[in-house]
C-alpha cells in the first residue's frame, strides 16, 4: 500500500453544509437534514441530479429519542436522489465511518458525488423528559448496562468518569486541565453565531459548576441540540471544474484493535481513539508534527484528552503538560482546536459537526473564528469511548 494514503488522492471533499442549529427548535429531523444537505450540494456547485450516493450514521431503528434525525432512505425520497451507492449504520468507525465508506466508494468508482449527513433533534425530543434515564421504557438492561445499571451508572458521564479518574491517578491530569479544554471551546463558541452557549466562561465558573460524575462537572458535558451537518465526498476526476478547491482525504483511522468497551481495555488509560489513530498513521507518511489544525471530539472534555494522547502529540500520559492553560489551542496558537465551540459549547452535532468545521477552516471561511495560522492539514477525530474514527484532511 502506498504511504501516500489509502485513497491515493482519489477521494476529496467538495462541499459542506449546516442547517439551523439551536435548542428545541421544534423542527423535524428530516427538515433539518434536507436543509443541511441542500446547502452542502449548493456549496459544492452541484445539483441534486449530480448526487449518486447517500451515506449517514446511525441509520434507522435507534431507540434514543432524537438521536437520529433522518435515514438515508428518507433523505433519498425527500430529494429524489437516484443513488448508485448508499449505506448507513451504527457499527462504523465512529460517527464519521460513513464518510470513510464514501471515500472508498468514490475511489472504487461506485459513485461520483456522495452526500454524507448526520442529523439530530435531541433537544426537542428530550423536552418531555426523555433524557431522564437511559433505561426509560426498556423492558430490561442490555449489554454493559446489565453490569452498570444496578449501580446507578446509567449515563456515559459515569462510564467515562472511571477511566478519566484512572488517567488522572496515573499521570497527574487535573480538573484545571479539563477546564482549559472547556474554556477554549467556550471562547471559540463566542465567535460562532450558531453556537448554543456563547457567554464567556472563566476557570472559576468552570470549577464552580455542579458536579455530574466526578471528575466531570456540568461544563465537561456536551449540550444536546437540534441540527444537521453534511459534506459532499467526490471522486477527484468528477470534481474537476467545481467551484471549490477540493480537500484531499489523506488518511483515515478505522482500527478496533481491542474489544469495543468503555472499561475493559488492557490499559485503562487508553480508549478506542488509540486504535483509530494508530491505523491512521500507518497509512500515511504524514506525522503529528505536520498537523496545524485539530477538530477533536468533546462529548466530554476527557475524550479530547484521549484524542490528543492517541494522536501522538506527546508521549503517552503527558496530556497535562501539553494542555497547560490551553493557550496553544486558541486561534493564534500552535494547534487551533475545536474552533466552532465543539460540542461542549457549540452543540452536540456529533462527528460530522467537527468535519464541517474542518472544511470551513481549510477553505479559510471561519470569519471571526478563523485560525490565524492559515491551516492546510487538519485532523478530525470523533468518538473515543468504545468506538472511534479519524481522518486527515488537506487543502494542499
Structure summarized in a few sentences:
31% of the residues lie in helices and 16% in strands. It contains 13 helices and eleven strands.
What would the keywords be for this entry?
single chain; 396 residues; alpha/beta; nine-stranded mixed β-sheet; two-stranded antiparallel ribbon
How would you characterize this protein structure?
The chain is an alpha/beta fold and 396 residues long. It has helices at residues 29-43, 72-79, 97-107, 122-125, 145-148, 156-171, 175-189, 203-208, 272-282, 301-310, 319-323, 342-346, 351-362, and strands spanning 11-18, 53-56, 85-88, 113-121, 211-213, 216-217, 226-235, 247-253, 293-296, 377-383, 388-394. The strands form two sheets. Strands 3-2-4-7-1-8-11-10-9 form a nine-stranded mixed beta sheet, with helices on both faces. Strands 5-6 form a two-stranded antiparallel ribbon. Helix 9 (272-282) runs parallel beside helix 10.
Structural class: alpha/beta
Order of the strands making up the biggest sheet: 3-2-4-7-1-8-11-10-9
Radius of gyration (Å): 20 Å
Q: Biggest sheet, open or closed, and with what strands and sense?
A: 9 strands, mixed
What count of helical segments does DSSP give?
13
SSE string, helices as H and strands as E: EHEHEHEHHHHHEEEEHEHHHHEE
Spans of at least 5 consecutive residues whose pLDDT stays below 50 are 132-137
Number of strands: 11
Tell me the overall shape: globular
Amino acid at each position: 500500500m502506498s504511504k501516500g494514503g489509502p485513497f491515493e488522492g482519489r477521494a476529496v471533499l467538495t462541499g459542506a453544509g449546516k442547517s439551523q442549529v439551536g435548542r428545541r427548535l421544534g423542527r423535524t429531523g428530516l427538515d433539518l437534514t434536507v436543509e443541511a444537505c441542500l446547502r452542502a450540494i449548493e456549496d459544492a456547485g452541484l445539483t441534486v441530479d449530480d448526487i449518486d450516493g447517500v451515506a449517514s450514521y446511525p441509520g434507522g431503528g435507534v431507540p434514543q429519542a432524537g438521536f437520529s434525525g433522518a435515514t438515508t432512505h428518507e433523505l433519498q425520497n425527500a430529494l429524489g436522489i437516484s443513488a448508485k451507492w448508499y449505506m448507513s449504520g451504527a457499527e462504523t468507525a465512529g460517527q464519521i465511518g460513513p464518510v470513510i465508506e464514501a471515500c472508498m466508494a468514490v475511489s472504487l468508482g461506485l459513485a461520483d458525488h456522495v452526500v454524507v449527513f448526520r442529523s439530530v433533534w435531541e433537544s426537542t425530543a428530550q423536552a418531555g423528559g426523555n433524557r431522564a434515564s437511559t433505561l426509560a421504557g426498556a423492558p430490561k438492561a442490555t449489554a454493559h448496562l446489565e453490569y452498570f445499571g444496578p449501580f446507578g451508572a446509567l449515563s456515559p458521564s459515569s462510564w467515562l468518569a472511571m477511566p478519566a479518574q484512572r488517567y488522572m491517578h496515573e499521570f497527574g491530569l487535573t480538573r484545571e486541565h479539563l477546564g482549559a479544554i472547556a474554556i477554549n471551546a467556550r471562547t471559540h463558541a463566542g465567535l460562532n453565531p450558531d453556537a448554543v452557549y456563547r457567554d464567556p466562561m472563566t476557570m472559576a465558573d468552570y470549577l464552580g459548576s455542579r458536579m455530574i460524575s466526578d471528575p466531570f462537572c456540568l461544563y465537561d458535558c456536551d449540550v444536546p441540540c437540534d441540527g444537521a451537518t453534511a459534506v459532499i465526498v467526490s471522486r477527484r476526476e468528477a470534481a474537476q471544474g467545481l467551484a471549490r478547491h477540493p480537500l484531499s482525504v489523506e488518511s483515515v483511522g478505522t482500527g478496533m484493535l481491542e474489544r469495543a468497551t468503555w472499561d475493559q481495555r488492557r490499559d485503562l488509560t487508553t480508549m478506542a481513539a488509540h486504535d483509530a489513530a494508530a491505523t491512521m498513521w500507518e497509512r500515511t507518511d504524514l506525522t503529528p508534527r505536520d498537523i496545524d489544525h485539530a477538530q477533536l471530539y468533546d462529548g466530554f472534555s476527557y475524550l479530547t484528552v484521549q484524542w490528543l494522547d492517541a494522536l501522538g502529540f506527546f508521549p503517552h500520559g503527558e496530556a497535562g503538560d501539553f494542555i497547560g492553560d490551553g493557550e496553544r489551542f486558541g486561534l493564534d496558537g500552535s494547534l487551533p482546536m475545536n474552533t466552532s465551540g465543539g460540542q461542549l459549547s457549540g452543540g452536540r452535532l456529533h462527528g460530522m459537526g467537527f468535519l464541517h468545521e474542518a472544511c470551513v477552516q481549510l477553505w479559510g471561511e471561519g470569519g471571526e473564528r478563523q485560525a490565524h495560522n492559515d491551516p492546510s492539514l487538519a485532523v478530525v477525530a470523533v468518538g473515543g469511548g468504545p468506538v472511534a474514527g479519524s481522518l486527515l484532511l488537506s487543502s494542499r
